[in-house]
Design a protein that fits this description.
Layout lengths: L1 H7 L9 H20 L1 H9 L17 H19 L1 H51 L2 H6 L2 H43 L1 H48 L1 H6 L3 H53 L7 H42 L20 E11 L2 E12 L3 E5 L6 H7 L8 E6 L2 E2 L5 H6 L1 E5 L9 H5 L8 H10 L3 H5 L18 H15 L3 E5 L7 H15 L3 E5 L11 E6 L2 E6 L1 H7 L2 H8 L4
Parallel strand pairs: 3-8, 3-9, 6-7, 7-8
Antiparallel strand pairs: 1-2, 1-4, 4-5, 9-10
Helix pairs in contact: 2-5, 2-7, 3-5, 3-11, 4-5, 5-7, 7-8, 7-11, 8-10, 8-11, 10-11, 15-17, 17-18, 19-20
Length: 608
């Protein structure tokens, strides 16, 4: 129930939906009951006109069913007397058409309200999911499959909106239908109706057992669906590697196994789901047959209390009680699946972000003195990565971090903008711990260029101006020129308005990297983090990108992570990391003269 109420909260404020839905549902039920009740007079006009009650005086108003029955009999008997049975038959038929139209019209209007509610819930949940996903720390995405997250945003949201919409049927419309027709049944024959009600709990128990099974299977199928989406995502993003290693058969086999497991799970779930409706119908017909038998026994013993046409209407009323009961069983199964999907959504929405901002966090608009790593220790869960790191980076200086792969270089860069939080020690900016600053202000002081240029399926202009408002074309062009990107952009079919495809697929590696640098130039940050920005490039592209980086680093405090040591010879200080520990530090020439690890790495790369 708690999960259901949380899901329903995404439809707030409820007053936009439930009052109108309830009113329209009530009118739909009233017109539906009247519509079925009119079959009694219709049958009497056709087969037994002599038994139609003749009421000479119009009955006095009273708010009960007897008044409306007498009033209708009054008008019908007068028509029979004045215009003949054929006219009375036409009158009853037209009245049935009118009540049927009004019943279905009000039902349609109530369904329209549910459509609004469903789309509103869908929008709100997806908005909350996207905001949550975009706010989570980087480590979350190393621990969870993207396919599961994408599956939640698509399949689980759909299941939730269907389940919540169906819950309105269960809460409002279907119970009203049952109550309305049950009232009619009790008015017509209390004794017969009591017998039928005794059998209903048995049906409810059977449907309940089916629904529990459906909930268990829904968990399994939705988990498998997440794995299938993940497999699709990996197949699309890794298509070059799949083809390069001729691994089509392998990935097809892995996908087929998942797909077949999902098919079997869905088959079991849908088979049991489809069983709910025919089983409830069979139980309903069985009970209806018992009612018919019991009603016949009462009739033969003179205890039924109604004539043949009225008994036919009674059976019709009873059948209309079974219909919403069947709909409730279907809706309950949908709600169960919705609750399972809701649980998966809440697993994302409730994920704790360990990167927290202090309630008294300070604003930070500029960088004035130095960055300091003081006794910093860090571990990914139980795996130590950095040990007792101490570095001072004065404003305007360039510090390069080098060393073997896996030594913790990129981790150091990720700690400064608080992509992760350290375990011990502190990182200080202008003498104040970075945890005491507002995260947005802290990141706003930094420009980050990584080995893989992160670009979006948009125009060149929008990729350079990404995240910034009121950016002029002149500013973007100036940034592109500094990044050595203006020339190749000008040769594109639509210049700065050219779409670069998914992740910049229409560009070369060097072009993508220069766009990422242009973005950093436009941001104009006082602190620059370059994480192996040239390591994946060919010689010519590296030269162009390195020139762009040199332009970018002017008058900025820079932290440069590099494997190609030729690119960082002019750094003010070079820090050599090995296995998370600072092994050496100094200028290029100082480290060469020591003959240590740095000197060894330089010899391997054949320069000095």
């Amino acid at each position: 129930m708690k999960s259901f109420l949380r899901l329903l909260a995404y439809a707030k404020p409820y007053r936009r939906f439930w009052p109108n839905y309830l009113i329209l549902s009530i009118f739909s039920v009233i017109f539906g009951v009247v519509n079925y009740a009119l079959f009694g007079p219709l049958l009497r006009v056709l087969f037994d006109p002599d038994k139609i009650d003749t009421v000479a005086v119009k009955p006095e108003f009273a708010l009960d069913t007897e008044y409306f029955e007498k009033l209708f009999g009054y008008y019908l008997s007068n028509m029979m007397a004045d215009d003949g049975p054929l006219f009375a038959l036409a009158f009853v038929g037209l009245f049935i058409i009118l009540t049927s139209f009004l019943s279905n019209l009000t039902r349609y209007l109530s369904q329209k309200i549910l459509v609004d509610m469903r789309t509103y819930i869908m929008r709100n949940i997806r908005k909350a999911l996207f905001q949550k996903v975009s706010s989570l720390h980087v480590g979350y995405f190393n621990e969870h499959k993207k396919g599961d997250i994408l599956s939640s945003i698509s399949n689980d949201v759909t299941e939730v909106q269907n389940g919540v919409a169906d819950s309105f049927h269960v809460i409002f419309r279907e119970p009203l239908l049952i109550i309305g027709f049950l009232i009619g049944l009790f008015v017509m024959s209390p004794k017969l109706t009591l017998v039928t009600l005794v059998t209903l709990p048995f049906s409810a128990i059977v449907i309940g057992r089916i629904s529990k099974y459906l909930k268990r299977k829904a968990v399994e199928t939705q988990t498998l669906m997440g794995q299938i989406v993940s497999c699709f995502e990996e197949g699309i993003s890794g298509i070059r590697i799949i083809k390069a290693f001729n691994a089509q058969k392998f990935v097809d086999g892995r996908f087929d196994d998942l797909n077949e497991a999902h098919r079997r799970s869905c088959r079991k779930m849908f088979s049991r789901q489809e069983l709910a409706s025919p089983l409830s119908e069979f139980l309903g017909i069985t009970i209806a047959a018992l009612v018919l038998f019991y009603g016949g026994w009462l009739h033969f013993n003179g205890k039924l209390g109604m004539d043949g046409p009225a008994f036919v209407v009674y059976l019709a009323f009873y059948w209309r009680v079974l219909e919403p009961a069947k709909q409730i069983s279907k809706a309950y199964a949908s709600i169960q699946r919705g609750l399972v999907s809701g649980g998966r959504l809440f697993a994302i929405l409730d994920a704790e972000n360990p990167i927290k901002e202090s309630g008294a966090a300070k604003e930070k608009a500029d960088f004035s003195t130095a960055i300091e790593f003081r006794n910093v220790n860090f571990a990914y869960e139980a795996e130590p990565v950095l040990h007792d790191i101490n570095i001072m980076i004065p404003k305007g200086r360039t510090v390069a971090i080098v060393g073997p792969s896996g030594g913790g270089k990129s981790t150091m860069a990720d700690l400064l903008p608080r992509f992760y939080d350290i375990n011990d020690g502190g990182i200080f900016l202008d003498g104040i711990n970075i945890k005491d600053y507002k995260i947005g202000d802290l990141v706003g002081l930094m420009g980050i260029v990584t080995q893989e240029a992160i670009l979006f399926n948009d125009t060149i202009f929008n990729n350079i101006a990404f995240g910034m408002e009121n950016v002029s074309e002149e500013d973007v062009i100036r940034a592109a020129k500094i990044a050595n990107a203006h020339d190749f952009i000008s040769e594109m079919p639509e210049g700065y308005n050219t779409n670069i495809g998914d992740r910049g697929a229409k560009l070369s590696g060097g072009q993508r990297q220069r766009l990422a640098i242009a973005r950093a130039v436009l941001k104009n940050p006082p602190i620059l983090i370059l994480d192996e920005a040239t390591s994946a490039l060919d010689t010519e592209s590296e030269r162009l990108v390195q020139d762009a980086l040199t332009n970018l680093m002017k008058n900025r405090t820079s932290i440069v992570i590099a494997h190609r040591l030729s690119t960082i010879q002019n750094a003010d200080e070079i820090v050599v990391l090995e296995k998370g520990t600072i092994l050496e530090r100094g200028s290029h020439h100082e480290l060469l003269s020591k003959g240590g690890l740095y000197s060894h790495l330089c010899k391997l790369q054949d320069f000095s």
